[in-house]
Amino acid sequence: xxxxxxxxxxxxxxxxxxxxxxxxxxxxxxxxxxxxxxxxxxxxxxxxxxxxxxxxxxxxxxxxxxxxxxxxxxxxxxxxxxxxxxxxxxxxxxxxxxxxxxxxxxxxxxxxxxxxxxxxxxxxxxxxxxxxxxxxxxxxxxxxxxxxxxxxxxxxxxxxxxxxxxxxxxxxxxxxxxxxxxxxxxxxxxxxxxxxxxxxxxxxxxxxxxxxxxxxxxxxxxxxxxxxxxxxxxxxxxxxxxxxxxxxxxxxxxxxxxxxxxxxxxxxxxxxxxxxxxxxxxxxxxxxxxxxxxxxxxxxxxxxxxxxxxxxxxxxxxxxxxxxxxxxxxxxxxxxxxxxxxxxxxxxxxxxxxxxxxxxxxxxxxxxxxxxxxxxxxxxxxxxxxxxxxxxxxxxxxxxxxxxxxxxxxxxxxxxxxxxxxxxxxxxxxxxxxxxxxxxxxxxxxxxxxxxxxxxxxxxxxxxxxxxxxxxxxxxxxxxxxxxxxxxxxxxxxxxxxxxxxxxxxxxxxxxxxxxxxxxxxxxxxxxxxxxxxxxxxxxxxxxxxxxxxxxxxxxxxxxxxxxxxxxxxxxxxxxxxxxxxxxxxxxxxxxxxxxxxxxxxxxxxxxxxxxxxxxxxxxxxxxxxxxxxxxxxxxxxxxxxxxxxxxxxxxxxxxxxxxxxxxxxxxxxxxxxxxxxxxxxxxxxxxxxxxxxxxxxxxxxxxxxxxxxxxxxxxxxxx
Length: 720
Fold this sequence. Notes:
- The structure is a single chain.
- The protein is an alpha/beta fold.
- The chain has three domains: 80-243, no CATH class; 306-397 and 427-522, 3-Layer(aba) Sandwich (Rossmann fold), CATH 3.40.50; 529-708, no CATH class.
- It has 29 helices and nine strands.
- A five-stranded parallel β-sheet has the order 3-6-7-2-8, sandwiched between helices. It has a two-stranded antiparallel ribbon with strand order 1-9. The protein has a two-stranded antiparallel ribbon with strand order 4-5.
- β4 and β5 form a beta hairpin.
- The longest helix is centred in the first third of the chain and has 54 residues, at 51-104.
- It is elongated, with a radius of gyration of 37 Å.
């Protein structure tokens, strides 16, 4: 009860943290229009978005407090028997010296009492230490886990080797503490040596000493109960006891939780201000500083899409298996994966990225090791097994056994020696997969048996980075061996190429991808409304023409959307607002420079890309540059295909530059924001994504948009 009370008092409450963060955030003049009551009304929703950081903090606090009380309990359990032993030695020595002095009629010498005390103390202490030493080595020889250095086994070894001497020594000392003070009191009262039949009462002294000796074990038992409620083991806590490290981890987790709450609150406040301001229409941008754009990723500003709902629905209907998240790079597959795998009450999650140059054995070992770390951190029932697996993964073990016998007399000597050594060979790939499957199954079963059952979720991220696509197929073939674990779900991000191969496979044939993945969730780019909402969480009072410009240039990709907005605001200063025409030109120039300086590919491709130099573009504009690229690219082959892509890029940038000007009116903007318009912004964003993958379709889309905006027509795409 004391441990639980201490934890509840010391742990920072979510409401208290939120109140502190609200006061700190609303001090900023940027948010002067928002009241504290409005932020408090959304407290639960904001704290819900930071549940993972809150759980990590609570776990760190619990570990720190448990180790604090554990250290106290161990100190008490070590100091109390020593104090009892010293007390017993003092009273026994005093009683014996007093008895001899009264019998001889001489005064009691303090030095004689000290000598008797020291002799008795050292004798009993040496005996207890010898028993503990023997028990330590007996456990070490009998326990393979203790020899392997498994923390849980090391903690049990300590409890075993010190616990038995404790329970033997403390009752013995309690008897001495009860008997000898009574002997001393009787002799001092009667001033004569203690006779054999002397009557004295000493039972209450023994009972009191036994009650005192029972306090440390009872405290440790309460600590073990508190640790088990947190899915931790007392033996493991003893083996890894380091209160200074836990205090540092607690402080770090608190700071991370506070920062997560602050960022979530900032997103809410910025979006609230943007909603109040409405869809502000202006062709002048005066925002010179946007702190919300300094963070490169939008992990805490996740905008829910249809893919989120689809993933939640599909995963709820699956006990185990695999789900693939597919979509173009930068569309937000990683963010969706990590958002789905956040810590909550229903799942235990692990997310690991795949290296570009992967090795099946090395990745399986890495995944195995990380899973073991997670199990140990959570303190599950398979933690001891996880420690054994970690050691076998990290080290090549060698065990040796040696015995020697020697006997001699004078100059003659006879000796015999026997030795054996066993070296553990590295595990083969099938052995690693088999061990991982068994461990996954045991861990998933352990989670199912909890009072509140959970599911194990393994996220494999950045699978779409593996090039070429056939390598991703090979990887899936290797990984699918562990996809059939009950109560274990795998969620992977895969390439568009792999998805197309699976969807376009001939009827009746199952390729590597199709046979490995149970369900596919397509992650689509943001539409214009969601793009505006994401920007509103980062920038307050952003005029909607600029939000549409960033949306079209990014193609609706969240990462590129924030990157484009950051680049545009860098051109604005407090004393010099920028017009829509000016910023559009600057962003187009930025894209032109990027294409001209792009490295890689053949010399022919590089020559075509060099046509995007500013001096070439300045001579005739982007539209004429597209025509020039077609002339230089020829009529067929790879060069022509590359030319079609670069020409479409030039036509696309020309279209953007002609649409987003200071002449853009609210009426025309409103029409283009509607999907039913002949030339909507969504079509322009879609054309940006189509360039390089479907150039014929991109040219057709650009032509429709330009026709709707009364722009000069484009030449037809040459056959390639």
